[in-house]
């Protein structure tokens, strides 16, 4: 079974009896959607990313075939399967980001048309933030995918660039994995690749250095590790409007509900979060397409066929 778009009760029932290679969920939230006009990815300008993710999951299907070609080479044991595992893993995260983007748009429309109160901006922001977090996760997977391509060609190129990492297939030991923050090292390691994987590494480096990715990491570093500003619609604390700030500015302060300062620190911030998530997701999708193009052109260069006697 190939691609599946799961929606509606009939399709959902049929889905229980199949094993698809690729799945896109039209939305993440559970519940009836008969009365909802679900946004389509085409309308959001994101459908091309779904197609690319499905292409990556299609590469995942080659695991056994490629492993069979490598059975004679102990240095490649389980490495082809691990690469295919990463193809599928990366793609699924991206597809979930696309489903979350539908929820973001549904909530935007519901608040804008007063079907939901303004405070539901918190829900929209949450889906945006989780999309952003998942895009970073997929970016790390992309970097490791390119690294695993290089490992198929020459393990020593990778281990020389990443000292102390053995890159054992399928291990959960974090010492055997890199992140997109290591893009410069990855590019250096792939620079000597005869198979052409240097181009794929440059794609990862370009993504890491892009303005869209810089905005993404800044957002994540602040909201994930530091003080996350509360969403507009509550009486939050603004760093530039504390009691001390008001005293210095106005010379007096008051207490009581009617005297509390209006919380404007997060005005427009939900829109910004969702914009960062969408633009970085698009940048990631474009990078995935380029990396897949390199793989399609270079995979044959690393399939090592057994030598016959006398060769």
Give an overview in words.
This protein is mostly helical and 311 residues long. It has helices spanning 9-15, 41-44, 47-60, 63-69, 79-112, 121-153, 155-161, 183-190, 197-209, 211-225, 243-250, 269-298; strands at residues 3-5, 22-24. The chain is elongated. Residues 7-13 and 305-311 have low confidence and may be disordered.
End-to-end distance, in Å?
Answer: 42 Å
Global mean pLDDT? 85
Give me the strand/helix succession.
EHEHHHHHHHHHHH
The stretches of 5 or more residues where confidence is low (pLDDT under 50) are 7-13, 305-311
Assembly of the depicted chains: single chain
The proportion of residues in beta strands is under 5%
How many E strands?
2
CA radius of gyration: 24 Å
Structural class: mainly alpha
Question: Secondary-structure blueprint of this entry?
Answer:
Layout: E1 3-5, H1 9-15, E2 22-24, H2 41-44, H3 47-60, H4 63-69, H5 79-112, H6 121-153, H7 155-161, H8 183-190, H9 197-209, H10 211-225, H11 243-250, H12 269-298
Keywords for this structure?
311 residues; mainly alpha; single chain; 58% helix; two-stranded parallel sheet; disordered C terminus
